[in-house]
Amino acid sequence: METRSKVLKAIRPVITSAKILPNMSSGEHFQNATLRPVIKFQNDLLITAFKNYIKKHKNVFNELVLERRQHYIDNAVTKDIKFRNALKGIIIGQFTVEEYTTYIKDSSALNKRMMNLVKQRLQDQIQLFDYPNAAATL
Asked: Exposure check for the chain: N or C terminus, fewer CB within 10 A?
C-alpha cells in the first residue's frame, strides 16, 4: 500500500515555472515545492469556496466594478479570519506530514505566502465570479 505522502505528491500538478534553486530561502523553497502545487490542485475548491463566500455576503461582490472586486477579494482573504482559516484548512489538509512539520516551524511567514498566492489566484480568475456564472455553479 502506498503511503499518504506518496499519493498526495503524485496527484499534485507539476509547475515547471516554480523553480527550486539551492540558494533560495526556505520560505521560497516551501512556496515553490509545496504551496504552489497544492493551491493549483485545490483551485476548483478555492473557487467554489469564494463563490459561497459571495453568496453568504448577499452577493454584494456582484454589484462592484472590477477594481472594487479586486479589493473585495483582498479583504476577504486577508481580513475575514473565518474565511482565511477555511482557506488555510483547504490547503494545509493537502500537506504531507513532513511538509506540515516544515510549515509549523515558520507558519506565520508561510501563511502570508499562502494567502498571497490564494488571493492572486482568485483575482486572476475573477471572471468566474460574474453573477450568471456564480449563481449557475452553486
From this structure: N
Q: What is the pLDDT of residues 99-116, one digit of tens each?
A: 999 999 999 999 999 999
Q: What is the pLDDT of residues 57-97, one digit of tens each?
A: 999 999 999 999 999 999 999 999 999 999 999 999 999 99
Q: List the one residue out of 88, 137, 93 whose CA is nearest residue 117.
A: 88
- Report yes or no on 138 lying in a domain: yes
Q: Which domain holds residue 102?
A: 43-138
Query: What is the number of domains present in the chain?
Result: 1
